[in-house]
Design a protein that fits this description.
Chain lengths: 115, 112
């Protein structure tokens, strides 16, 4: 299958700072990218869906001003957690798709810890 | 809304044992059903899928049958190997691969 990378794989930051997570599709053009959040022993929860060149569509309950998503190219999407707080600590996973009914390919995830 | 319930882990089996991981779902319409696997340090990979009732998905010795009457999609393997140790996620989508709803994941540990 296709390869999706995430960077960084883990990050620790202080409360009140912003953190950017990158998601890259390495060998295909990702028309659509998805961002998920996973709490310990819980499901992956879809946060938002982004199509290249368009504004992201956020799921209900996800603050779009706190979780900024940019999908400026067909191989890169970024998630920025602004003014991070300890409750934002979680495992963030992205996936990428060539769009439509094509399979989603998942990145390895980023562990965010906010002190 | 859509939801997926799968058995809690961890599941610990000896090599060559039979594996069953239960999964049931709630969804409107006719969802597609998936099993994803996540090996340590890696991203989720699609293991198998079924798109309509009575379909059987299979891959790498794993099988799951789409049972609409019991709203289930249980994962089975006749003889597990140490290399099968991973976290397994049951999932559904009611519109192709968009908006996939995941279960909580079941960790499988296979011991020699």
């Amino acid at each position: 299958g296709a390869v999706v990378s995430q960077h960084p794989s883990w990050v620790i930051c202080k409360s009140g700072t912003s953190v950017k997570i990158e998601c890259r599709s390495l060998d295909f053009q990702a028309t659509t990218m998805f961002w998920y959040r996973q709490f310990p022993k819980q499901s992956l929860m879809l946060m938002a869906t982004s199509n290249e060149g368009s504004k992201a569509t956020y799921e209900q309950g996800v603050e779009k001003d706190k979780f900024l998503i940019n999908h400026a190219s067909l191989t890169l999407s970024t998630l920025t957690v602004t003014s991070a707080h300890p409750e934002d600590s979680s495992f963030y996973i992205c996936s990428a798709s060539a769009g439509g009914f094509n399979e989603q390919f998942f990145g390895p995830g980023t562990r965010l810890t906010v002190l | 809304g859509n939801s997926v319930t799968q058995m809690e882990g961890p599941v610990t089996l000896s090599e060559e044992a039979f594996l069953t991981i239960n999964c049931t779902y709630t969804a409107t319409g006719y969802p597609s059903l998936f099993w994803y696997v996540q090996y340590p340090g890696e991203g989720l990979q699609l293991l198998l899928k079924a798109t309509k009732a009575d379909d059987k998905g299979s891959n790498k010795g794993f099988e799951a049958t789409y049972r609409k009457e019991t709203t289930s999609f249980h994962l089975e393997k006749g003889s597990v190997q140490v290399s099968d140790s991973a976290v397994y996620f049951c999932a559904l989508s009611s519109g192709g691969y968009q908006k996939v709803t995941f279960g909580t994941g079941t960790k499988l540990q296979v011991i020699p």
